[in-house]
């Protein structure tokens, strides 16, 4: 924004100079002042020489002629009256008329400039004897606007741009701080209230941002307390109902009641976990994301799960051995990422749990995109999910008929997506449709 404002200011200053030059500079003035005076003086001398006897006048004018100038005495003018123009011609006409006392019809002037050659100034003066002195000279042509611009533009522009640049940095500093704070808040980080500095408009926007962040924090805290209180209050009646269910004599009815109460207990526990907002309690720090995946794979391998991991960044590649459930790593430099490690690991763990539970194994791949963002894919070999249900599985306590969701009534995917979005990322599910492949693929995109 600073560069754009400076460029706009510079354009305005240059335009103002050009407009001023157009208004001040006489139209058609192209001959240097000294050269114009010399041309007029030479023409006047040639007119006086023409007052001599004809033979002497012709000889004197011939001797005065050289390669650049030519003077002749002819019975007729060599300039058509229609060729007369304004500008320098008017200045020359006024001077010669005043100096020689000639009437307007006794003086003709024409200035012609070739595209790739010198300019020629032709002056025709009528003598008292009725003859015409025809002169042709090469004046010095100058661009009158170049010299003042070379001085006025740097002198008037550079100090203005320097002062404006210093003030723009001061004015835009609160805006840049606000943009950085908004980016951190979008990732779920805790941001201290921004100081109210800068112009009035910037202070008002900063105050509105601080108030918005305070209200969001209060809303999340109120929601968390409400859900935690409801879940805590439900535990007591569920426990009481379970004790009473144990006293039921009908075995089938007792088992059905206990199974339902167990499901209610799990739902309450999952609700408490979902309400616990880790994004606002864990400190954001920089970690090696590849090491985080490796640690996650080792934990699942110790539980006997089949997990494969591939991490690629230039020459770096980490592969999880399916047969031995051991991690083999070849490091070619870290892959740093600023995040809340526990929060992010929890989301990835939920996705891996779903993959090994419903798809027999999990295959994770981590790669860095050209724009610096990170992409994590979690594949399984399960039956997949119908296209119309891919978004529904993110809703809390959703049951699906397919085999992969038979006993799933928790908040695993909802928590995973909440964790990813708290980092400013995106989580999507899609079925693998490539030849020879089947199963579900969870696609995670994390910003740079």
Oligomer: single chain
Q: Please provide the count of β strands.
A: 13
Helix-strand makeup class: alpha+beta
The proportion of residues forming helix, as a percent range, comes to: 40-55%
Task: Name the poorly predicted regions.
Answer: 314-332, 401-409
Main location: membrane
Domain HAMP: 169-221
GO molecular function: ATP binding; phosphorelay sensor kinase activity
Protein name: histidine kinase
What does this structure look like?
The protein is of the alpha+beta class. It contains ten helices and 13 strands. It has a seven-stranded mixed beta sheet with strand order 8-7-6-10-11-13-12. It is rod-shaped, with a radius of gyration of 45 Å. The relative contact order is 0.07.
Pick out its properties.
448 residues, alpha+beta, Helix Hairpins, Heat Shock Protein 90, 3 domains, seven-stranded mixed beta sheet, 18% strand, rod-shaped
List the helices and strands and how they pair.
Elements: H1 2-24, H2 33-49, H3 54-64, E1 70-74, H4 88-100, E2 107-113, E3 119-126, E4 132-137, H5 146-186, H6 200-245, H7 251-275, E5 285-288, H8 289-302, E6 306-313, E7 316-321, E8 326-330, E9 336-339, H9 341-359, E10 361-368, E11 374-379, H10 412-422, E12 426-431, E13 440-446
Parallel strand pairs: 6-10
Antiparallel strand pairs: 1-4, 2-3, 3-4, 5-9, 6-7, 7-8, 10-11, 11-13, 12-13
Helix pairs in contact: 1-5, 2-4, 5-6, 6-7, 9-10
């Amino acid at each position: 924004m600073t560069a754009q404002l400076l460029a706009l200011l510079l354009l305005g200053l240059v335009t103002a100079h050009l407009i001023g030059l157009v208004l001040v500079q006489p139209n058609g003035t192209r001959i240097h002042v000294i050269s114009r005076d010399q041309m007029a003086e030479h023409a006047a001398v040639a007119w006086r020489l023409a007052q001599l006897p004809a033979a002497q006048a012709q000889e004197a004018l011939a001797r005065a002629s050289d390669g650049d100038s030519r003077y002749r005495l002819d019975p007729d003018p060599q300039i058509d009256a229609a060729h007369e123009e304004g500008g320098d011609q008017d200045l020359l006409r006024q001077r010669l008329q005043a100096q020689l006392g000639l009437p307007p019809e006794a003086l003709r002037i024409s200035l012609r400039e070739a595209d790739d050659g010198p300019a020629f100034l032709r002056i025709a003066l009528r003598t008292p004897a009725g003859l015409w002195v025809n002169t042709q000279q090469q004046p010095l042509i100058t661009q009158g606007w170049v010299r003042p611009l070379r001085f006025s533009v740097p002198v008037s522009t550079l100090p203005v741009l320097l002062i404006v640049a210093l003030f723009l940095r001061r004015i835009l500093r609160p805006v840049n701080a606000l943009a950085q704070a908004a980016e951190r808040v979008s990732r779920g980080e805790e941001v201290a209230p921004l100081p109210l500095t800068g112009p009035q408009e910037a202070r008002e926007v900063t105050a509105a941002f601080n108030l918005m962040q305070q209200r969001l924090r209060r809303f999340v805290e109120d929601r968390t307390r409400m859900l935690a209180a409801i879940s805590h209050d439900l535990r007591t009646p569920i426990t009481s109902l379970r004790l009473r269910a144990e006293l039921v004599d009908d075995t089938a009815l007792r088992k059905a009641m206990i199974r339902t109460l167990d499901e209610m207990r799990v739902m309450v526990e999952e609700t408490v976990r979902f309400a616990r907002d880790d994004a606002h309690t864990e400190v954001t720090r920089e970690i090696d994301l590849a090491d985080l995946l490796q640690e996650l794979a080792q934990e699942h391998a110790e539980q006997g799960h089949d997990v494969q991991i591939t991490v690629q960044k230039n020459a770096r590649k980490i592969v999880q051995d399916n047969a031995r459930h051991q991690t083999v790593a070849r490091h070619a430099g870290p892959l740093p990422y600023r995040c809340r490690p526990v929060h992010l690991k929890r989301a990835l763990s939920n996705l891996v749990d779903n993959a090994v539970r419903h798809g027999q194994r999990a295959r994770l791949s981590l790669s860095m995109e050209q724009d610096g963002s990170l992409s994590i894919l979690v594949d399984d070999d399960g039956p997949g999910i119908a296209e119309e249900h891919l978004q529904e599985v993110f809703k809390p306590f959703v049951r699906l008929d397919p085999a992969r969701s038979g006993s799933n009534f928790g908040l695993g995917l909802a928590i995973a997506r909440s964790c990813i979005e708290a980092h400013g990322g995106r989580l999507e599910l899609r079925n693998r449709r490539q030849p020879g492949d089947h199963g579900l693929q969870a696609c995670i995109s994390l910003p740079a």
